Amino acid sequence: MKRKRHTPEQIVRHLRDAAQMVGEGRTVAQVCRRIGVTEVTYYRWKKEYDGASRDSIKRLKELEKENGQLERLLADQVLENRVLKDIAAGNF
Length: 92
Known about the structure:
CATH topology of the largest domain: Arc Repressor Mutant, subunit A
Strand content: under 5%
CATH class of the largest domain: Mainly Alpha
Number of helices: 4
Number of strands: 0
Oligomer: single chain
Shape: elongated
Distance between the termini: 48 Å
CATH architecture of the largest domain: Orthogonal Bundle
Number of domains: 2
Largest sheet: none
Low-confidence stretches: none
Helix content: over 70%
Mean pLDDT: 88
């Protein structure tokens, strides 16, 4: 089965809806079935996104993406430096 990815905005909306449903007396299991996620996913979302605004979540995702790009650039640079050191030492 193909996994469905939710955007941060969708997650925040689901958490707000879930909080409202729990406030109305529904159980977490019922809420999870209603929003279409497992209880584990619900609690993970709640830990990560609860109390956050859409703007802050969007900014967090952008920073994570930028961090990944910078990590790849650093890895490429380290590899290039290692190759140059090996060539300069004559160990090729």
